[in-house]
Design a protein that fits this description.
The complex is a heterodimer of chains A (205) and B (308). Helix content of chain A is 34%, strand content 12%. Chain A has 205 residues and is α/β, with parallel strands linked by helices. Classes of the chains: A alpha/beta (205), B mainly alpha (308).
Chain lengths: 205, 308
């Protein structure tokens, strides 16, 4: 698809094209020493989430902030913008229209970033598996670190999922951003198969 | 002579490290207190440290231009600058920082320096919420600057000096000598202005969670955000130390400093957890009503007491 020789951002108007960066994402190798372990510990204990609440799973995210479940005691805090967040939560089924926004939000997040997918719909389509307008498996479009199964998963299950994500980060396996940069062509090809009217930049800085 | 300059710089560095650690722990404790008011447990008190480490450890960063880059730099310069011109502990060589006579005006200027730099930086990020946050912040700043400046003028007339060290020295010898007792109106106007500066509810119209998600720093991320968070801690503690010095008798040792600044901060925190957010125009009208009148009154009374 796009590489450094071919023109990019063809989906945009000529005026908008200059506003976006044309550089492709690059793999940022983690350090292979104790510093990275320390940083991973900090990352695991300071998870700022970007809730993408288009699916019904988002309704189970809200109670996490309340005094009953209190996710902040694990260092998990909601954050309003993709730039500052480190965990992207897909709240259930994703329609073709929302997939565009998911891709754009995901690409605006900074490396290292992690993705949690809520509910059965993100794994195999769930009850919408034969719908004309939803995608069945989110993993084909952005790299997912943790799936939380259920329709919908209870807040306890989501907190358990965050626990799993922490273990993953501490073990140094939360390299979704590098995986995305590595297999960029494959992910973009998948996205283009679903998103017919590609009126957005190829890579969102 | 050269030796003493190096010693001053060394002491200033130690002092800045102290204020950073203290400010971050203060933020952590306040998050914990707010959580307890909500009936939650809240994160550990060292959570601000983790957030800053994590933000600085992000592997990618995006710049929107030179001013965007300089915004956090100006902000942290404003924070450290404010702190370094305030004598933190009365009578201590190490914590007297770089203060000199006439520094009260400089500190008052430096308090607003960071905000202006941040406004330019956030403006270049191009996000609509940044622009809304900046316009709100600058208008609120203009409003609470009136009572603050008037209370400072009142103090200067009362003590006939611009030096913070001299003002602290004049307040030594018991609680009855504190400005809080000798000039209660100026203290009241100053503390109300402090509520606006600290940006807790009801004056958190700049950050305004759930409304304009996070205001000016919407586009700031990674190490930019880490810098802003570090500054938040330093600047916050510096303001508290300034208010402790000019209104509440200063501190002669580190424990007194921690106790007094914590209690002063609690005014903001208690009011913050008790009241909902003002709208922008409500906040501005609030500052331009009673606090402004109290400030004018305190200046008039100071003038009469001095017999000028």
């Amino acid at each position: 698809m796009e590489n450094n020789n071919k023109p990019v951002n063809l989906g945009l108007s000529a005026a908008d094209r200059e506003l976006f960066c044309e550089a492709l994402p690059v793999v940022r190798k983690p350090l292979q020493n104790f510093i990275e372990k320390f940083l991973n510990w900090a990352r695991a204990n300071s998870l700022w989430i970007l809730g993408f609440g288009t699916g019904c799973g988002a309704i189970e995210l809200r109670p996490l902030m309340t005094s009953r479940y209190d996710m902040y005691r694990y260092g998990i805090a909601p954050r309003p913008t993709p730039r500052q967040s480190s965990v992207f939560i897909i709240g259930g089924y994703a329609s073709v229209k929302t997939l565009k926004r998911i891709v754009r939000s995901y690409e605006q997040m900074q490396n290292p970033k992690f993705v949690i997918a809520l509910g059965s719909c993100t794994i195999n389509g769930g009850m919408y598996w034969d719908s004309y307008n939803t995608i069945n498996r989110i993993d084909a479009y952005i790299p997912v670190d943790i799936y939380i199964a259920g329709c919908m998963p209870r807040p306890e299950a989501i907190i358990a999922g965050f626990g799993k994500l922490k273990e993953l980060i501490l073990a140094g396996k939360g390299e979704g951003a590098n995986k995305y940069a590595d297999n960029f062509e494959w992910y973009k090809a998948n996205q283009r198969k679903i998103i017919k009217d590609w009126n957005m930049p190829d890579y969102n800085w | 002579m050269e030796n003493s300059i190096f010693l001053t710089i060394l002491y200033a560095v130690i002092s800045v490290i102290f204020i950073t650690v203290y400010g971050l722990f203060l933020n952590g404790v306040v998050i914990k207190i707010v959580a307890r008011v909500h009936g939650r447990f809240g994160p550990p008190v060292w959570q601000p440290f983790l957030d800053i480490i994590k933000n600085n450890a992000k592997r990618t960063m995006i710049s929107h231009g030179i001013m965007y880059f300089l915004g956090p730099v100006f902000r942290i310069t404003g924070g450290i600058g404010t702190y370094l011109f305030i004598p933190a502990i009365y009578g201590s060589v190490m914590f007297s920082n770089l203060s000199f006579s006439g520094d009260l005006l400089l500190v008052v200027y430096f308090i607003f320096f960071g905000q202006l730099g941040m406004a330019l930086g956030a403006g270049e990020s191009g996000h609509p919420y940044s622009a809304i946050g900046v316009s709100r912040g600058l208008s609120q700043m203009t409003a609470f600057e009136f009572p603050f400046a008037l209370s400072i003028v009142s103090l200067v007339i009362q003590y006939q000096t611009l030096s913070i060290s001299a003002i602290v020295a004049a307040q030594q010898g018991g609680i009855l000598n504190w400005t809080m007792i000798t000039n209660p109106l100026a203290t009241l106007a100053g503390v109300i202005a402090l509520l606006g500066m600290n940006m807790h509810s009801p004056f958190d119209i700049v950050i305004a969670p759930q409304e304009i998600p996070i205001g000016p720093p919407t586009e700031y991320h990674s190490a930019f955000l880490g810098m802003l968070q570090t500054n938040r801690a330093i600047f916050n503690a510096a303001k508290l130390i300034l208010f402790m010095n000019i209104f509440f008798g200063g501190a002669t040792n580190i424990f007194l400093l921690i106790l007094k600044t914590f209690l002063i901060y609690m005014i903001s925190v208690v009011i913050g957890v008790s009241f909902p957010r003002f709208r922008t125009e409500q906040s501005i009208r609030f500052f331009l009503k009673y606090p402004l009148l109290i400030g004018i009154l305190s200046v008039v009374i100071s003038i009469f007491r001095q017999g000028v």
